[in-house]
Fold this sequence. Notes:
Blueprint: H1 5-27, E1 41-42, H2 44-54, H3 56-76, E2 82-95, E3 109-127, H4 131-197, H5 203-238, E4 247-248, H6 260-273, H7 275-296, E5 301-312, E6 319-329, H8 337-403, H9 409-443
Amino acid sequence: MRFPVHRQIVISSLLLLGGLMGPAGAAGQTPADGPPDAGGEVSLAACLRIGLSQNPALAAAREGIRIAGEEAGMARAAYYPDVRLEGGYRRWQSHAFIPEIPVPGLPSTIGPIDDWSVRLRASYLLYDGGERAARYRGALAAAAAAGEDTRQLRQDLALAIHQAFYALTAADEARAAAQQQLARTRNNLRLTEVRLAAGAVSKADVLRARVEAADAELALVRVANLVEMRRADLNRTLGLPVETPLIIDPLVDDPAAPTKEEVSAAMDRAARQRPSILALRQRLEAGGQEVRAARSRYYPRFSLDGYAGWRDEEWAPEDADWSVGLSFSLPLFQGFSRRHELGRARAEQDRLAALLREARQQVRQDVWDAHLRIGEAREAVTAAAVLVADAAESLRLVQARYEAGAGTVNDLLDVQAALARAEAIQVEARMNLRQAQATFRWSTTDLLPEELDH
Length: 454
């Protein structure tokens, strides 16, 4: 794949501009991009804006774009002449060796002499077999690859933010379920104490109910601690201090699932548009330019060289000193280094081509696996909802029988524990579905809104 030079220049310029604008944009963030106020609720969209503006990994990636842009500028410098101002002083003496023309009285040495010089030297490479063009196009392709790597990092960070946000949401839901379980155990404890006072049950039933209530309190403490840990995970992903008192908005789940036709189209689109694929294509282009640069070493090089200045035995020098000429160089033998360099460049290009084919297959599998996980998670959510409804109805019936004196406290507490397990399964199933949906959108490069995907 070859891009016209003018298109590569545009790409490199835009990437470099984006890298240079990065720190300025961070300095001028809007309040929505900054840390949330204490007690304020933050939506998933707001978390994405915060993370994409403050995460240190993205800041490092933006500097990588700047580095690639500067390297492209370094490669372009070979098109300009090399101009230098030179000057120096030396004192020298040398033997005057003239064996064929003996001259009586001629001294056998020359000097010592003071030698002062000031000159302006310039050289320009006229022809190099295409190496400059290959190096420059390769640097532009590398800069474009750095930009695509940054886009992929933004997608990966967005997925991490989604996963952390959903994990915190699940922890909040688990805490709410633990609070309900604690309320139920305390209500059961009250019932057993009432029945103990009426002489209908033994004290062992009260002790069993107290143990269950204490266990529910301990479970609530563990879940509350889990909430804080998940909040710290989300803060770290966003690039915020882990102790930031972040409160998230409730989620509105999207029940839609992709159809088979949408999955097929998504696989094709991801194989073409995934930033990691585009980055590999740019690296393959850079590899092709490396091959052209290595091949150029078999051609001669023509250079125009010259200097002009003054040279004399005293400061300041007054005698004119100048030279201009055309030179060429053609390597004849360098220990087969040129052949090995060309072979290495071709092997590297073949390796990148193989990696690109493998990456396209992997991308298609990512989309397919994410689609299957959505189906599995949706079935789990449906089954968990039925499980919770059945367990809640069982608890209602057993509790009514216990209040009427027809049941035992063991039956009541066992059904109560079953409801708690069902609620935990439901919380996990919801989280898995949300994360599976986010993973599918990530695999299709559709996780970020268009205004944030740049």
